[in-house]
Amino acid sequence: MAPRGASVRDEGNEMSTTARETTADAFERRLSTTPRSAQERDALIAQPAFGTVFTDHMARVSWSADGGWGDRRVEPYGPLLLDPAAAVLHYGQEIFEGLKAYKHADGSVWTFRPWANAARFAQSARRLALPELPAEDFLGSIEALVAVDLDWVPGADETSLYLRPFMFASEAFLGVRPARGVDYLLIASPVGPYFAGGVKPVSIWVSQDYNRSGPGGTGAAKCGGNYAASLLPQQEAYARGCEQVCFLDAATGTQLEELGGMNVFVVHADGHVETPALTGSILEGVTRSSIITLLREEGRDVVEGTVRLDDLRAGLSAGSVAEVFACGTAAVVTPIGRLAGTEFDLTVADGATGPVTAAVRSRLTDIQYGRADDPHGWMYHLA
Questions:
Q1: Any idea what DSSP says for residue 41?
Q2: 3-state secondary structure 319-345
Q3: Region (Disordered): which ranges (predicted)?
Q4: Is the Cβ–Cβ distance between 206 and 73 less than 8 Å?
Q5: Cα atoms in the Cβ-side hemisphere of radius 13 Å centred on 26
Q6: Integer Cα distance of 290 and 238 in angstroms
């Protein structure tokens, strides 16, 4: 079982890999009769593009209001059969997660803080009026799928098996109420770096016309609607020559919240670090909380509070802001080299990756890939 009170923000040893219970053995193996050949699989994972190639199988659990969770299975990856009246298609009742499986030098496979993802998945489910998947099933589905598709885990540098758990309202019903039929699935994709060009500073457009979420909204839940809301301003960012968009708070339009899919950090020249506080409209990132821990272990003062756009602009102009970076499961840590908006266009320091950004990314990925000790018990053995 997950530790009592486990949450995304747990900072201590989260779980012993020898003292755990999952439902992995309860997942029936319904194996594909037409899996890719070893040669085809190896060719696909040799140069993995993010989120475009998927393994031979997926894990699945079904829920009904009358029977609860059941029919746990690993089955061939393939299209879903949905009724045109499926509630998710009309009312957007769905959530998802993202985490990775890493192959270490000895061939073993591990994942990073999965109980934190399980806790956030449950929090998202509560906000979207979906049933909470037990943490044992969340992790059991990962263990079961990775065991079946183990050969799909790539071993090259900066590669991993991206895991995408998701849940949606599958009941065929046109009515605004929580669905009485729900499906949970887990799919997996061998991936390389999130940005095709590798780790390099990106340009950020600060959106002052659109908001990702607002007070009382779904910003703290990982649901598709939040990301759909970011797509139009993301297009605006592209049109302005930027790779990503940053959103301001909906209440005042003066405070940084997060990027379309990443949390943001500001490193000051005096060494202290700021990141927007979790106000309920910002996603509680697993990578975010891990970085806060690592930075504080270095002796840095990390302030979770209000990051005002005007203060950041002034700091960049005066040189008191040394680095800005973003973080998330997919991209890990991404340096920000330029911050632009309708009335400003500023380079972050010299536009290069800063030493704090580079160091914290290295520390985190060294733990994830088994190149460094894991004092927090963040890594979870899968195979």
A1: H
A2: CCEEEEEEEECCCEEEEEEEEEECCEE
A3: 1-27
A4: no
A5: 15
A6: 30
For the whole model, what pTM was predicted?
Answer: 0.93
Distance CA 187, CA 58 (A): 5
Residue pLDDT, tens place only, 156-200: 988 999 999 999 999 999 999 999 999 999 999 999 887 766 678
Q: Which CATH number fits domain 24-192: 3.30.470.10, 3.40.50.620, 2.40.50.1020, 3.30.450.20?
A: 3.30.470.10
Largest CA distance in the chain: 63
Contact 365, 110 (CB under 8 A): no
pLDDT digits (tens, 9 = 90+) for 110-142: 999 999 999 999 999 999 999 999 999 999 999
- What residues in the chain have per-residue pLDDT under 50? 1-7, 10-13, 16-19
Q: Cα–Cα distance between 30 and 40 in angstroms, integer?
A: 21
Residue spans per domain, the chain: 24-192, 202-366
The span from the CA of 276 to the CA of 282, in Å, is: 8
Task: For domain 202-366, give its CATH number from 3.90.180.10, 3.40.50.300, 3.40.190.10, 3.20.10.10.
Answer: 3.20.10.10
Q: What is the pLDDT of residues 258-291, one digit of tens each?
A: 998 899 999 999 999 999 999 999 999 999 999 9
CA distance linking residue 210 with residue 88, whole number of Å: 25
